[in-house]
Design goal:
By secondary structure, the chain is an all-alpha fold. It is 58% helix and 0% strand. The two termini are 17 Å apart.
Length: 294
Amino acid sequence: MPDLRSSVTGSLLGLFCGDALGMPYEAQPPEAIPARLEMEEARLGRGTYTDDTQMAIAVCESLLRCDRVDEDDLAATIAAAFDPDRGYGAGTTTVVRLWREGVPVAEAAGTLFAGEGSAANGAAMRVAPVGLRFAHDHDRCVAEARRQARLTHAHPFGVDGAAAQAAAVAAAARGVDHVAAALAAAETAALREPLRRAAGMAWREAGVLGATAAAHESVPAALLAATAPTFEQALTAAVRCGGDTDTVAAMAGAVAGARLGVEAIPPRWLDALEDGERGRTHVEELAGRLSALY
């Protein structure tokens, strides 16, 4: 089992790697994705991240300031970092616009999709820092994950997906069964049923669970892929689900990285990650600070 610093760094960089690896194949079918993955040219270049990692960085930065999910601080951090070129979904883009127009942070997400809120995986893909910070307090971890989810994804499926993903990251960091932990955190039947199925499946079967942007499909697929013996196998299985490849792989990478440690990430992938103002070095620094909170 990796030490704490390795697990935290592995989770955050694992998320980043999965995001960058999966982005070039977004919306493609599994048969169009190669069996051996490399960092390819994509929206902003080779090894660059999408909104998945950009928002995870924002969550981590806000947690480090507040040591809890402070909705106003997190909303301000997400809005300040928001870069439409990173591929934000329509729902989150609308929520950020509403915040900027003065709609209260607690109300904006609930106005989407006929008042039901988004059921997508946008809150789950960014939640890894919450799972890492509260890894040894399951109830607190789940509560904080749900709180951060409701900022942008108010539908019960979107909130539940974030809670399950955070619980899985926390369990992986502790070296225990992350699928079982996700199942314990889930409240909706739509998520609990595929998580039960995942508990009895092989990691290579992750795509069977579905890989759309819906949280109740993509979270179980990512968590199953993350049970693979190696980090490379986990991310390859996640990307080769097809569909929402960047997000499924980002979530799988966050869990597999926490479980296996940063040393398990192939150096050729790490070396290819972008390293600008908020790139690889910044993420490593955030991981160090997050580890120190223990």
